[in-house]
Amino acid sequence: MSDFPADRTLRIGTRSSPMAMAQATMVAGLLRKEQPGIRVELVPVTTQADRWHGDLAQVGGKGLFVKQIDAMVQGGSVDMAVHCMKDVPGDIPLPQGLVFAAVLARDDVRDVLVFPQGSDLQTLDDLPVGAAVATSAVRRRAQLQRVRPDLAVVRVRGAVGTRIDKLDGTRESDTAADAAVLAASGLERLGLSHRGRQVFSVDELLPAVGAGVLALECREDDGPVAELLGRLNHERTMAEVTAERAMLEGLRGHCNSPVAGYCATGQDGLLSLRGMVFTPDGSAFVEARLRGEPGEDPAALGARACAELLRQGAAEIIEAIPH
C-alpha cells in the first residue's frame, strides 16, 4: 500500500443536488480518514438530467445522471466520481478507460411510503380507492399497481427534498398526491427518515439493481487513485452488485423497463439472487430465484438468473415496452 501523492489534490466529480453533495462529502471524509492530510476538492455539476423536468426516457434515461460526470473523469477534469449504482446503466458497458475501483458497504435497500405533513395515514392499505401515489421509478409503479391496481401512480421528478415539498404542497404550483414512495437510504442520508411511515420489505417491493450502493469510479490507468479508492471497497457488496448487474446486462433492459433485482449474502457465505421483470402495470411478470454455488463467480450467478428470466419470456416483456 502506497500513500496518495502529497502534492496532488483529489478532485471528486458529483451532481450538485443535496443528496449527491452529501454522498460526495461522506466519501471525502472516508478518504481523509484513510489517508490523513489528503487534499480533497468537490467539483459539483448540474447534469442535463438535473435540468430536464420531463420524462427522462425522452432524453436518454437516467443514465444521463452519470454520463456528463463520466466524461469529466475520462477527460481528466476530475479524478473520480461518486455514483449511485442504481443510476448507472446496466445494458451498456462503462465508458472506455473507466472502472469501479470500489463500492461502499450497502445501505438500506428498501422503499418507504411517505405521506403529506399532518396526514394520519400509515400504510398503503390506508389509501382510499383511486388515491394518487407519486414515484419516478417504473419498477415501483409496476409493483404498486400489481397489489393496488386502483391507485393512480403519478410521475414525479426532482431531488428528494423537492419531492417531499411537493407532497406537502408547500407551493401553489405543486401537484397534489396522497403519498409518495422514496428510497429509505436517501431519506436517511438527508436526515429525513422520520418522514417515512411504511417501510416495504424486499418481498413487497423488490429493489432496483444496485439499490443502496455507492460506487467509486476512476480512470483505470490512474494507479494512485485506484489504489486509494480500493482501500474503501466492501467485498461482500461488490460481489452482490456484480451478480445483480450481470443479470441486468444480459436482459438488455432500457430505462422504461420495470426490472428489479436483489442479491444478498447468506450466513453460509453463499449468494442468493432474485430478479423480476414486470409489464408496466404489474399485471404480468417473470421471476427467478437462484442460489450461488460454492466458488461460483458472482457474474455467473447473474448470468444464470438472466437466462432463467429470458426462458420465461423477459425479452418479450421488455421489447413490448416503448423506449
TrEMBL record:
Residues 10-225 form the Porphobilinogen deaminase N-terminal domain. GO terms for cellular component: cytoplasm. GO terms for molecular function: hydroxymethylbilane synthase activity. Pathway: Porphyrin-containing compound metabolism; protoporphyrin-IX biosynthesis; coproporphyrinogen-III from 5-aminolevulinate: step 2/4. Pfam families: Porphobil_deam, Porphobil_deamC. InterPro entries: HemC (IPR000860), Porphobilin_deaminase_cofac_BS (IPR022419), Porphobilin_deaminase_N (IPR022417), Porphobilinogen_deaminase_C (IPR022418), Porphobilinogen_deaminase_C_sf (IPR036803). It is an enzyme of class 2 (transferase). The modification S-(dipyrrolylmethanemethyl)cysteine is found at residue 255. The gene is hemC. The porphobilinogen subunits are added to the dipyrromethane group. Tetrapolymerization of the monopyrrole PBG into the hydroxymethylbilane pre-uroporphyrinogen in several discrete steps. Binds 1 dipyrromethane group covalently. Residues 239-310 form the Porphobilinogen deaminase C-terminal domain. The lineage of its organism: Bacteria, Bacillati, Actinomycetota, Actinomycetes, Kitasatosporales. The keyword Transmembrane does not apply. PANTHER family: PORPHOBILINOGEN DEAMINASE. It catalyses: 4 porphobilinogen + H2O = hydroxymethylbilane + 4 NH4(+). Belongs to the HMBS family. This is Porphobilinogen deaminase. Monomer. Its cofactor is dipyrromethane.
